[in-house]
Amino acid sequence: MLCEKCGKKAASVHVTKIINGHKTELYLCDACAREKGGELSFEGKFPLHQFFSELMSFVPPGDSEAVAPTGYSGLQCTECGLTYTQFGQIGRFGCDQCYTVFDKNLAPLLRRLHGNQKHMGKIPARAGSFVRIKKEVERLREELQRKVAEEAFEEAAELRDKIRKLEGKLPFRGDNHE
Amino acid sequence: MSEKEKFASSNPKDRNKPLEEIYKESMEEDQLQQERRVEIASKWMEGSGPDADIVISSRIRLARNVRKLPFPPLASDEQREKVFMLAEKVMENQGDANMRLQLLSISSLPQIFRQVLVEKHLISPLLAKESRFSALMLRDDEVISIMVNEEDHFRIQCLLPGLQLEKAWQEASRYDDFLESQVDYAFHEEKGYLTACPTNVGTGLRASVMLHLPALVITQQINRILAAVNQVGLAVRGLYGEGTEITGNLLQISNQITLGQSEEEIWHNLYSVTRQLINQEKNAREHLLNEGREKLADRAGRAFGLLKYSRLIDSNEAMQLISDVRLGVDLGLITNVPVKVLNELLVLTRPGCLQYLKGRTLTAYERDLERAVQIQKYLP
């Protein structure tokens, strides 16, 4: 069958419209169908974000910290006001704070999307300055352990002083986010 | 028939105008078109860089957001304006002359020109549509472009010709450092750079290459190979990204994972897969040459003839023929066509560019006519 619009190419798309019980049918080729696309929207885009909410509401057995799906839908970001239901609809977070508010149930989603949940890349100079120091402290601590095991006490003492100095630059210990 | 008579007879409603006037108008139109054609050309279309016979361009994109401000999809006009003003502030504090960007407010650009920017891969269709306080920060050579108020507050892109992922990453990262010196980023120790969509969180990095793989298509190996590419966590798309089909044997390959790997790991993974694809494509080309050099030369020559002398040509046909000619050029079977011309034609023959060149909106039929005119003018 030829396209009913251009009459040149073979029709590959079949459109049925029913408006007020009146049915019209149209056979179009790819090109004409795409042209009519604005009106008919053929591009069946895969709604990835609809999976997000499904994945987030999965509570791993034995994880008491994750919020159960039923209680979760009411959760709302204190900063931008995004609700969990809205997130499921648009598949986008509202602000940086959302990552903290929805954190407990974000893990399974991130694992499914990335196979990972810990950032291993670049650390920004300003926003990440504390993170840099913390990472350096971690590294020095490991070295300190090694030196102690090797009974190189003089070097170990030097390392301990370095660690103290760096820790002094941190605003507080442990979590350095607001 | 002289040039002016030809022009007069092709415009029946202009029949009563004096020929001199019509001739003058057509000269002016030609000059305007030439200027616009130069405007459409971009650094990434140069056909230079490593492995440019197979890799048309390399791209690195970094998604970055401002701390404590809602991401653009949920932001109010006021909040979007804050981000816009931040971009203006960044513009004022540009030090290094070689890094200089200019700021284009999207709302100030005509719709057709926005589409031209999309077709040149400098902005996304989303940014072209969303004009509330959105902007483009663009370097003169168009290698660096930063979208403001797209899905994320800032999206830094570096686009280079050929296979240059490492350089693209270094350049993008340099602009990232510069931006961070002025803007408070939303960054989380565990989750990295925070983005509107959880598919970008972590590094916020998308690396992609645009490849021309005609021999793998002709030898029917492409599907098997693309399946393998998918299995190593890379996405395959058409020329214009998500949801576009693969035409003209051109495809885009990009990473999907952004969290849990370093930036180097991500682009290097793409780099090594690209290297393998280059080798496979080269083997397939070799095989085709051995099997029938004349057949390939004939295919390329016919494609050139059709491009040069057709009067009505749709986008898909043009893309396929450009691909055939390109393969001929790559293999030395056609010698008078610079690759740069073929790359520019890929963009020049898109609907937005054709309408920009013509200075008005065109129907699909008019575009097919204009496409043929432009190709004819531009091919040597």
Describe this protein's structure.
- The complex is a heterodimer of chains A (178) and B (380).
- Chain A is mostly helical.
- Chain A is 47% helix and 8% strand.
- Chain A has 9 helices and 2 strands; from the N terminus they run ββααααααααα.
- In chain A, strands 1-2 form a two-stranded antiparallel ribbon.
- In chain A, a hairpin with a 2-residue loop joins strand 1 and strand 2.
- The longest helix of chain A has 21 residues.
- The termini of chain A are far apart.
- By secondary structure, chain B is an alpha+beta fold.
- Chain B has a domain of 92 residues.
- Chain B is 49% helix and 14% strand.
- Chain B contains 13 helices and 10 strands.
- In chain B, strands 2-3-4-5-1-8-10-9 form an 8-stranded antiparallel sheet, with helices on one face. Chain B has a two-stranded antiparallel sheet with strand order 6-7.
- In chain B, helix 4 crosses helix 12.
- Chain B is globular, with a radius of gyration of 22 Å.
- Chain B starts with a helix and ends with a helix.
- About 1% of the residues of chain B have low confidence.
- Chains A and B meet through helix 7 of A and helix 6, strand 6, strand 7 and helix 9 of B.
Helical amount among residues of chain B, as a percent range?
40-55%
In whole angstroms, the N-to-C terminal distance of chain B is 22 Å
Alpha-beta classification of chain B: alpha+beta
Task: Sketch the major β-sheet of chain A.
Answer: 2 strands, antiparallel
In short:
The complex is a heterodimer of chains A (178) and B (380). By secondary structure, chain A is mainly α. Chain A contains nine helices and two strands; from the N terminus they run ββααααααααα.
Tags for this model:
heterodimer; A: mainly alpha; disordered C terminus; B: 380 residues; eight-stranded antiparallel beta sheet; two-stranded antiparallel sheet
